[in-house]
Amino acid sequence: MFALDKFSLIILTRCNLHCRLCCEYVPQNSPFPDMTVEEEKKILDVAFHVVDHIKVLHLTGGGEPFLHTKLPELVESAMKYNKQFDRLMLFTNCTVPISERLMKTLVKYKEKILVQVSQYGLFPEREQKILHSLLDNGVPCKTVKYYGEEQDFGGWVDFGSWDSQMCSPEKLENRFHGCAVTSAMHGNWRTRDGKVHWCSRSQRGMELGLIPDEPEDYVDLFDSTSREEKQEKFQQISEKYYLSACDHCSGDQGTEDSSLRYPAAEQMEVKR
Question: Is residue 150 included in any domain, yes or no?
Answer without folding.
Answer: yes
